């Protein structure tokens, strides 16, 4: 079972958009500085959290290699006696 996010989906989307737009406008000297500043301004506990959201958005948008987050599923098959034969 997946743990519910501490942050609403709208906040995550807004934060990612703000980082993307600020990088496109060269508002900050580095991506790290943009992520750090925006995370603090929006009350996101750690810049690493926002960095992961940005990376996931880049993967889902086809800008980075990787699997689409929405399509990734994990199939777990228990091992041992008494389970599937």
Automatic annotation (TrEMBL):
SUPFAM superfamilies registered for this protein in UniProt: Homeodomain-like (SSF46689)
Cited InterPro entries: Homeodomain-like_sf (IPR009057), WH-like_DNA-bd_sf (IPR036388)
Name of the protein this chain belongs to: Transposase
Source organism (scientific name): Candidatus Agrococcus pullicola
High-level lineage: Bacteria, Bacillati, Actinomycetota, Actinomycetes, Micrococcales
